[in-house]
Amino acid sequence: MDNEEQEKPFDTVSIVFLLIIAAASDISDLFTALIFPVPVLGQIVYFANSFLISPIIWIIIQGWFIMKVGLTGRKGLISGVSNLLGGLGNIANLPGSETIMTGIAIIAANHGGVVSAVAGVKGGPAAALAKQPRIAA
């Protein structure tokens, strides 16, 4: 095993803190969805959450991942894409999207074997297709 696979960028405290931030964002999305039918107030809360709170939370979580994992390599790519999807779900006020995608990104960053399996590097159909000879055009 490589040193990179043994080293986990997120310890327990970081994981708990990130999941609390993501859950707080999802709770604000749920509150926004419940208050949206109230005339005027619901629309003000919706726009404040969509264009102020959600992007700030996304920037905090994305910045944390960039500092811990970086933008390069399989771990960086998979955690970056899952955070992007979680942020888009958060801006669209989909309750639960930020917490679920942050959890997926943490698992991808901490466990290189999962990332390799998803990328099809260590086996599976994607690895078998990658080993086949390519036809030159």
Describe the 3D structure.
- The protein is mainly α and 137 residues long.
- The protein is 76% helix and 0% strand.
- It has seven helices and no strands.
- The radius of gyration is 18 Å and the shape is elongated.
User: What order do the helices and strands follow?
Assistant: HHHHHHH
- Counting helices, strands and paired strands, the structural category is mainly alpha
What is the beta-strand fraction?
under 5%
N-to-C CA distance: 38 Å
Q: Biggest sheet, in brief?
A: none
Mean pLDDT rating: 78
The count of helical stretches stands at 7
- Gyration radius (Cα, Å) is 18 Å
Helix content: over 70%
Q: Choose one word for the global shape.
A: elongated
List the helices and strands and how they pair.
Elements: H1 3-6, H2 12-35, H3 41-68, H4 73-91, H5 97-110, H6 112-119, H7 125-131
Helix pairs in contact: 2-3, 2-5, 3-4, 4-5, 5-6
